[in-house]
Amino acid sequence: MTCVIQDRTSRMLIGVGEQREGLYYLRRIVTAAAMKAKSETSYDLWHKRLGHASTKAINMLPVTGFVQNKDSCNQVCDICLRAKQSRESFSISENKSMDIFQLIHCDLWGPYRTPAFNGARYFLTIVDDFSRAVWIYLLVDKKEVFPYLSQFITMVERQFAKQVKIIRSDNGTEFTSMGNYFLDRGIMHETSCTGTPQQNGRVERKHRHILNVARALCFQANFPLEFWGDCVLTACYLINRTPTTVLHGKTPYNLLYGTPPSLNHLRVLGCLCYAHNQNHKGDKFASRS
Questions:
Q1: Is residue 204 part of a domain?
Q2: InterPro entries per the record (predicted)?
Q3: Which of 91, 115, 122, 227 has its CA at 20 to 30 Å from residue 10's CA atom?
Q4: What distance in Å separates the CA atoms of residue 13 and residue 7, rounded to the nearest whole number?
């Protein structure tokens, strides 16, 4: 009887073992395959780690040991087709801000029919016009826009020593009700005309980008719908760390902090992992994970 061991993600052969006296003896291919898997990082793996990012974005990654396979780049990704197919896009407006947080775009998405695990049915999207960085807040109710947006403005002042000067949104009451708050802080509030989301196209396009990545993550991991909130937050995290041609190959994180982000900790969402068991109570033979 023979035992075959394969990598679950890449389907690469790790080892082959033969049964002798109740045990499987693995051939030397195990060591060679493990070394190769560690030294080479495929296009497909980074495509999945970054939430099914585009070929252009992956080619701009400053990753060492990256192996680009032309056949992989040209293959059609079923999850991308299911998650990202869309109609004609909004027209692209020119970037007029000269520094981070001079202009931010805000929009509210929802309500979604299935609440997330924390009860959220909405999420608030905030986009910095200059860096294209995005922040996501999961909301249970529209009334939470005020406290979360005010917390964001305070965070910008404390962590980046910057002042939000202009906020652009639609005419939703969750934003127009903050008029006095904006006046007190000297913030100009610009709103789009009713029924014309194209006037707030930057955040509308970012919404589509976030949902495309979130759907791809959900499909990739076969998550139930209750995980949509976690997928949206993960998509936001990945988008801020993915290079884009709009920023000439840089990432939003780079423009915010002045340094490229580390990607070494990224793994494919939904992959197998082991948690350390701290409750073994000193038992030397208890499972450690």
A1: no
A2: GAG-pre-integrase_dom (IPR025724), Integrase_cat-core (IPR001584), Retrotran_Ty1/copia-like (IPR039537), RNaseH-like_sf (IPR012337), RNaseH_sf (IPR036397)
A3: 227
A4: 7
Residue 25 domain boundaries: 1-39
Q: What's the whole-model pTM score?
A: 0.72
Q: Kindly state whether residue 145 falls inside one of the protein's structural domains.
A: no
Tokens in use for 284? 């030397």
Tokens, residue 156: 């910008």
Q: Is residue 102 part of a domain?
A: no
* C-alpha R_g of the chain: 23
Listed in order, strand segments (DSSP E) in the chain are 2-6, 13-20, 23-26, 41-42, 66-67, 103-109, 122-128, 134-139, 166-169, 188-191
Domain count, the chain: 1
pLDDT in tens, 39-83: 445 777 777 777 777 777 777 777 645 555 555 555 667 777 677
Q: For the chain, how far is it from start to end, CA to CA, in angstroms? A: 30
- Is position 3 within any domain? yes
Whether the Cβ atoms of residue 235 and residue 210 lie closer than 8 Å to each other:
yes
